[in-house]
Write a structure and sequence with these properties.
By secondary structure, the protein is α/β, with parallel strands linked by helices. The chain is built from 15 helices and 12 strands. Strands 2-1-3-4-5-6 form a 6-stranded parallel beta sheet, with helices on both faces. Strands 9-8-7-10-11-12 form a 6-stranded parallel beta sheet, sandwiched between helices. Helix 4 runs parallel beside helix 5 and helix 7 (about 170-175) packs across helix 10.
Length: about 350
């Protein structure tokens, strides 16, 4: 299907992504790509804004709905979830269609998992289509929520072209003040409890030599775990608890031998695609999205116990000389492109003849 065919068939289809989250290039790239496909694509910071802009036949494309209503206070969480549910039902009554990209099964660090599960189940009950980033995600949606409706696999696009090319490792280490020699592990992204950084710190300390480094870089969301904060007293562990500017992102990954993804619960990992896009292999559990990305030194598998991570870090350190970072970066580029992703999504939202699509892919 070409963009021209979509435009001629249904030039007035509007697709609004909600909630608006531009902390990384994913959503802006998707919105821009759908516009190039001939759809009127945009984003809405609030669901109420979407209800005012969408009409019959348009699409609301939901991404991270739990982030809009999770709250430590149960009554506020429940009120927020009910409000979202009511607004989605209002859209459905008006003939607006709903798609969900299932980045996560449940919200991260959910203080009330039962409410989160109910909210996801309610969303799936109204969804006209679900997009997932790996084949096994369909079975997980069925197992967890009983969902058997229309779904399409869209590989998470790489970030190869979203950032400058990573510099040589020696240059990157000089820029960050890291030893030229030694093994460097990187934990990159928002610092949150579910990421298991306390276990990673303990595992690294077990196996690290004098010139080895663990770099934890990213802005905290909530208080930093005491064991992570106190780890900064160890000169081998570097905590940079702040947002890393986009221009510096390639430097951090170029300096590292591996990126550690030690999330206690995850479904899809954009961080994994970012790491592979920089040519940096991953240490993490071979489940869900990471299992789909494994092969050829892209993933050093680990269970998430301290012992398991220690063993995986040691193996990664031993096998670092065999890693072909250029090949990893090339694989990431081929695994998922923004053009392919937006082509696939546009084909679902408007089929080749311009009719609404509801079939499973």
């Amino acid at each position: 299907m070409t963009s021209a065919k979509i435009t001629r068939a249904r030039p007035d289809v509007r697709v609004l992504a909600w909630p608006r989250w531009f902390d990384n290039p994913y959503l802006p790239s998707l919105v821009d790509g759908l516009n190039r496909e001939g759809l009127r694509s945009g984003s809405a910071p609030m669901l109420l804004a979407a209800t005012m802009r969408l009409r019959e036949g348009d699409w609301l494309h939901v991404h991270w709905p739990g982030e809009t209503h999770t709250h430590a206070a149960r009554w506020r969480y429940e009120l927020g979830a009910r409000t979202v549910h009511a607004q989605l039902r209002h859209l459905k009554r008006r003939g607006v269609r709903i798609a969900w990209t299932a980045h996560n099964l449940l919200p991260h660090d959910d203080p009330h998992p039962d409410l989160g599960h109910r909210a996801r189940r309610d969303l799936l009950g109204m969804a006209d289509h679900v997009f997932v980033h790996f084949e096994g995600a369909r079975a997980e949606l069925t197992r967890e929520f009983g969902y058997t409706g229309p779904s399409t696999v869209v590989h998470h696009p790489s970030y190869v072209d979203a950032y400058p090319a990573p510099p040589p490792q020696q240059t990157a280490r000089e820029a960050l003040g890291l030893p030229e020699r030694g093994f460097v592990a990187l934990a990159f992204g928002r610092i949150r409890p579910y990421k298991g950084l306390d276990t990673l710190v303990a595992a690294f300390r077990r196996c690290a030599g004098e010139d080895d480094r663990l770099v934890i870089a990213g802005s905290p969301l909530g208080p930093v775990h005491p064991s992570v904060k106190s780890a900064a007293d160890d000169p081998r562990i570097i905590l940079r608890a702040r947002k890393i500017p986009d221009a510096q992102v390639p430097t951090y990954f170029a300096a590292a031998d591996v990126a550690a993804i030690t999330h206690r619960a995850f479904f899809t990992s954009g961080s994994a695609l970012l790491s592979l896009s920089m040519g940096c292999p991953i240490v993490g559990p071979p489940v869900n999205h990471l299992a789909d990305l494994a092969g050829d030194h892209r993933l050093f598998p680990a269970d998430l116990s301290t012992d398991g991570l220690t063993e995986a870090l040691r193996r990664a350190r031993d096998e670092t000389p065999s890693v072909d970072r250029t090949a990893i970066r090339g694989w990431a580029r081929e695994h998922g492109t923004w053009q392919t992703a937006t082509d696939t999504i546009a084909a679902v939202l408007c089929d080749r003849s311009g009719n609404e699509s509801g079939s499973s892919n």
